Amino acid sequence: MNEVLSTSQLGNDDNVDLVQYLTFMMDDEEYGIEILSVQEIRGWESMTSIPNSEEYVKGVINLRGTVVPVVDLRIRFNLSKFDYNELTVIIIVKVMIDKKTKIMGIVVDAVSDVYNIEKQKAKKAPDIGDSETKNYIEGLINVGDKMVVLLDLEKVLLI
Amino acid sequence: MSIDLSQFYEVFIDESFEGLETMESELLNLSPGDVDSEIINNIFRAAHSIKGGSGTFGFNAIANFTHVIETLLDEIRNGERELAANHVDLMLKSIDCLRNMLRSIQNNDEQESQEANTLRVQFEAILEQKNTTDDSNTSNSDAVATQPESNGVASKQTKIQITNFFEIKFNPESHVFKTGNEPLFIFEDLAEHGELSVEANIKGIPELDNLVADDCYLGWTINLDTTSDEETVKSVFEWVEDDAEIEIKLVAQFEDEIEVESELDEIEASKHEPSLTESSTSVDLASATPATTPESLPTDNSKQNDSATSDPVKAEFRPVQKASTDNKKEPTKQESSSIRVGTDKVDSLINMVGELVITQAMLNELGEDEQIDHAKLLALREGLAQLAHNTRDLQENVMRIRMLPISFVFSRFPRLVRDISQKLDKKVDLVLKGEGTELDKTVMEKISDPMVHLIRNSLDHGLETTPERLAAGKSEAGKVILNAYHQGGNIIIEIIDDGRGLNTEKIRSKAIENGLITEESVLSNQEINELIFKPGFSTADEVSDISGRGVGMDVVKRNINALNGTVEVVSEPNKGSTFTIRLPLTLAILDGQLVKVGNHIYIIPLVSIVESLQIDMSKVNSVGGGMDVLRLRDDYIPILRMHQLFNHPEACQKLQGGLLVVVESDNEKVGLLVDELLAQQQFVIKSLEENYKKVDGISGATILGSGSVSLIIDISSVVKMAGLKRAGHVGLDFDKPLSEAV
């Protein structure tokens, strides 16, 4: 990974704000969330659906005695639906919503990588397209020759 | 070295509240004239530790106030004063006042409250009375003499101020640090009283090799110029008295003409007087002893002189008073998050965890073997059985930690009954039974208010006045019994009175008047009695401030239902009424019925289920608007299709032969159409809101034996959902149409 790069940068300039991001794949796009908010990664499991909930709320699972709601990000982002397979994972994240810490799960196609990312270099999302989805995006950044969409989890999971 | 004392505030406040409770209950045991010294001692001890604690933490308003209470108690204890009824009243009032003061500390706005000052003046009036009438006694007890005397000094200081020069020899014993005392703090305290110079005596210090690090080898000689008297200086050493040689010598004394508001004591003295001038009338009224006036007059006068000279100080004090009256109006609810647990409970937990670890080690060992033969398999099974046993015990014990005896709630009722019976001029004997019965702390916190309401009700409506009782051939004093006991997984609380019983005629006519029932309705007496729990029902002829504001039993019932409990009344004319509250022992566990709707498993709380039945289509009528009702004996029960409400289209949709669970919520019976009835069992309630949000029709979640999550149906919310979906639909033969139940 970018280990070498990141340490040398740290040595040169303390102001560089390096943040580790976990990235995952959805519909061939790579999305990133701050790694500090990730609690664990689980395989797909069956869950209890919640009556009259939005379509993207797949239901709740039992996480060692805690009831945790799970959101399908594909549906949340209006992407095409995808059948769950053995690569489908639930990323359990901890987010601050309404000043309360909540533990939630997000369903994604597959986990990809971990990058050190300079937050300042992230570009704002272009002002076009699905305006709702755009709100969830914190910024866009290039890692090597790939583009990663950095997500603002708190907005994504404000449900 | 300085310690952040604020971290101990919580403990101090908790303990003080407990102390106040002790004082209160002991005071109620006291009867004037017949003084049990043990009771007085108990009260005294409680007051003393509150005073000590508040002094340590610098809550001077409380310390000063408790000091006068203590002084009075001390006199009574020493037999220098007869206990009078007004003393008890006054002390009860001061307990209320102290509670308010403690609460305001909790809210971080300590103020010297107006109320405290008023009460303090009353105490001083009582104490004063004694001192002037019987001077010879004052020398008997130092503590008694100080308060009034120092007061006298303070008020006379308008003209003359006495400065004392003390030489204090303070030689603590070597173990003084181990008792938690720190001479430096003592010196800091002394420095507040005046000018201080301290000289250390280092002769006692041994060779470095022989020196023990946490022993004290120093002695001190302290010179102090102060306006405080010897007693005050002595009190600084209160905590180290037993661990040190203390010698306080008055070396010299000067009398000075004073300049107003320059000295600490002066401000102290003037603090009393605004409250005194404003409340001197209430002194006479409240203390109700005719002797107050002549003796206390001179002090009044001198203090009025004082007020003339020290106006600036007075002006400064005003806003404080205002603030304190403001916060008195709204005493924020105390929300204590700590819990005191008996060491026996903790010990048994530790034992249990020990056993669990052993079992775990044993299983671990078995698991490491590559090969498992028959013997090993048996051992494994035994180990698993042991593990199951340990886990169950552990669960029970952990639950027990949150359990407290119901006496925590009961203990406040003697006072309540005393106050109300005085107000109503009825004689009441309160009997408490089963005070040791334990229940969950959260349930306890929430059951207190409904109980207060029921007790008030029994006193106000249930018990007759004394003449009525005598005419009915009953004993003069009415009897109210509070009884608590366990039954199954529930706690039962009974409130029994031997009063006139419920007047079924009156309830009936009132119910007709309020449109709850019609003239033609045929109801048994029991059914009529249950009507008092309907909203907007009050039969009191007059609205009193004790009960009967129209919000009454329905609120009680709603609150108790919210705790998954029930309340019932049984009454017999002229024999009395019994209110029975039935509550689950804990809010964390729920008895429930598993039901299946489509592929989904839900839980219905067992307490709200009336019965379950198979639908007989001949008894189903469609009343329009998509609403079907089932005729069940005398009731028409609306059928709520769960699959519709919860949007599970795969579920069984036919009514014919369908299963209907009849549930009751807010006096409303409805039938829930489900696919299948599964097991009944206990569930540990988990919050759904914690990580998600409130869901209509769902009160929480639980985890089934299989590890999957199941949702608990919230009956009243489901009724509401159905009501909302059929807004405007009325005309059902109900006490109240569904849409109104929302």
Molecular structure report:
The complex is a heterodimer of chains A (159) and B (742). Chain A is 14% helix and 47% strand. With 159 residues, chain A is mainly beta. Chain A has one domain (3-156): OB fold (Dihydrolipoamide Acetyltransferase, E2P) (Beta Barrel), CATH 2.40.50. In chain A, strands 8-1-2-10-9 form a five-stranded mixed sheet. A five-stranded mixed sheet of chain A has the order 3-6-7-5-4. In chain A, a hairpin with a 2-residue loop joins strand 6 and strand 7. Residues 1-13 of chain A have low confidence and may be disordered. Chain B is of the alpha+beta class. In chain B, 45% of the residues lie in helices and 21% in strands. Chain B is built from 23 helices and 22 strands. Chain B has a six-stranded mixed sheet. Chain B has a five-stranded mixed sheet with strand order 6-8-9-11-10. A five-stranded mixed sheet of chain B has the order 20-12-13-22-21. In chain B, helix 5 crosses helix 6 and helix 12 (343-368) runs antiparallel to helix 13 (374-401). The longest helix of chain B is centred in the middle third of the chain and has 28 residues, at 374-401. Classes of the chains: A mainly beta (159), B alpha+beta (742). The interface between A and B is medium-sized, with 22 and 24 residues. Chain A: It is found in: Cytoplasm. Chain A: Its main location: cytoplasm. Chain A: Pfam families: CheW (PF01584). Chain A: This is Chemotaxis protein CheW.
